[in-house]
């Protein structure tokens, strides 16, 4: 992969302005109107998903659903309140920043190596994961519904025999019933890679053991294995995953079978299938609980507005981008470019986008100025720019656009601007901390991770 510094140089030399639209073709429009009822997430029906064109180049697309919506393939449990989700979201964001505490950010979004040791707690707080896919594992294939997470590399499902497992809706995967299951011996290259990446847990007899410790104190451990993975009509042979036989803490309590890692490390689904489906994947996170999205491996890379993909050799799981400006109501805010120099990561598991404090203050002030007709409301957890929409049948809000390096202008959908009556952004403690582009802002866009092309892309209105 080309060094990040070269990518930044290329984008400076070949600066181009491309625009991703979110429902309104007129970029000069400074406001959008939405129904007050759309701010409420309650829904009982699953709407038909938009037709998704098949990826070119032999890729595969599978449906993606919100865990607590009526489209979810597993029985719904009681969804946490928004306040609880925001509390968990802060834990995840804090953990991401701790993981980058050993990485220095260069002035142009470049990530430089540091002498500081990256923490060995490699996983994240899982309480904010919201989106699931269903895959088949084994021969014959057993359906397993799993969370997706771009911040994790090791995928895992619960397996028999399991000394300590959480309840799940799908049948527990039984390795002895699969003709293609194979545990990795301790002497294997896969086990050596696992140890190198800090996720090995020694041996049990001669079999390789994995462990992932998450930021909320939970963990999963078991035998590192391979088996056939079914993704829609396609199959992946020798897919590497953890066969979880013991967990601690409140790992996953939502009847799901495990986690599918989409990070940038060697163990992730995206990396393992790069030769089969190309080094590009994409997803679309649905705007409501009652709508569906998709995950595509081997995604087509045309038709997107793109910004350079930045990577850290020390924390390879994450996909970095450089935010350069913010527009409110069609006008660019007066924020010095240096404010964004710490860079940001794209994260499917973080809910609320985190901005440098100076940038957030400017965004909040400009947004309030465009919302003077609505009384202010009390803050809700980490969200402090809130409004009282009592008695309103429709709401008029200023448009918000994120401008990334390379000239990619991403005009957010209404779902990516307002959440629970509040501006769906939060501030970091200062301007030097890593930013995070959360999943609320990603909703309805097809978000492309073109690892081979060193780019992140956005295509509006995809789901």
UniProtKB/TrEMBL annotation:
Q: Which domain of life is it from?
A: Eukaryota
Q: Could you give a single Gene Ontology term from the biological process aspect?
A: proteolysis
Query: Residues in domain Peptidase A1?
Result: 131-459
Name a GO molecular-function annotation: aspartic-type endopeptidase activity
Query: What is the active site of this protein?
Result: 149, 347
Keywords attached to this entry: Aspartyl protease, Disulfide bond, Hydrolase, Protease, Signal
Signal peptide positions (record): 1-22
Q: Which PANTHER family does the entry mention?
A: ASPARTYL PROTEASES, OS06G0119600 PROTEIN
Q: Which family does it belong to?
A: Belongs to the peptidase A1 family.
Name of the molecule in the record: Peptidase A1 domain-containing protein
């Amino acid at each position: 992969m080309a060094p990040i510094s070269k990518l930044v140089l290329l984008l400076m030399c070949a600066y181009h302005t491309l625009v991703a639209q979110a429902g309104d073709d007129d970029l000069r429009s400074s406001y959008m109107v939405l129904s007050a009822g759309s701010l409420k997430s309650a829904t009982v029906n699953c709407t038909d998903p938009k037709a998704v064109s098949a990826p070119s180049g032999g890729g595969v697309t599978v449906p993606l659903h919100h865990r607590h919506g009526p489209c979810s393939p597993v029985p719904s449990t009681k969804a946490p309140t928004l306040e609880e989700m925001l509390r968990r979201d802060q834990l995840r964001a804090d953990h991401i920043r701790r993981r980058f505490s050993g990485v220095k950010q260069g002035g142009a979004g470049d990530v430089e190596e540091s002498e500081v040791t990256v923490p060995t707690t490699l996983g994240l707080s899982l309480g904010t994961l919201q989106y699931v896919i269903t895959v088949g594992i084994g021969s014959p294939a057993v359906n397993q519904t799993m969370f997706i997470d771009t911040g994790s590399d090791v995928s895992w499902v619960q397996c028999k025999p399991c000394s300590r497992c959480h309840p799940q809706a799908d049948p527990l995967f039984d390795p002895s019933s699969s003709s293609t299951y194979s545990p990795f011996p301790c002497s294997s290259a896969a086990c050596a890679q696992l140890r190198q990446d800090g996720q090995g847990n020694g041996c049990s007899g001669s079999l390789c053991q994995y462990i992932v410790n998450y930021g909320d104190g939970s963990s999963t451990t078991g035998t590192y294995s391979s088996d056939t993975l079914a993704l829609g009509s396609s199959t992946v042979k020798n897919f590497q995953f953890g066969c979880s036989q013991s967990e601690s803490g409140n790992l996953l309590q939502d009847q799901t079978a495990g986690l599918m890692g989409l990070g940038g490390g060697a163990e992730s689904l995206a990396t393992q299938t790069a030769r089969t489906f190309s080094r590009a994947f994409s997803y679309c996170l649905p705007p409501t609980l009652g709508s569906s999205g998709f995950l595509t491996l081997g995604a087509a890379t045309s038709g997107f507005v793109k910004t350079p993909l930045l990577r850290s050799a020390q924390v390879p799981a994450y996909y970095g981008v450089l935010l350069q400006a913010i527009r409110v109501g069609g006008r660019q805010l007066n924020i010095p470019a240096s404010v964004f120099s710490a860079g940001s990561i794209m994260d499917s598991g973080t809910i609320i986008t985190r901005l440098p404090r100076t940038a957030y203050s400017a965004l909040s002030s400009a947004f309030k100025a465009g919302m003077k007709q609505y009384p202010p409301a009390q803050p809700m957890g980490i969200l402090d720019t809130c409004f009282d929409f009592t008695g309103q049948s429709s709401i008029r809000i200023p448009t918000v656009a994120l401008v990334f390096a390379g000239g990619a202008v991403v005009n957010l959908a209404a779902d990516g601007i307002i959440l629970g009556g509040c501006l769906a952004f939060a501030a970091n403690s200062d301007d030097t901390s890593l930013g995070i582009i959360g999943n609320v802002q990603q909703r309805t866009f097809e978000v492309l991770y073109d690892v081979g092309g060193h780019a992140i892309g956005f295509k509006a209105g995809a789901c």
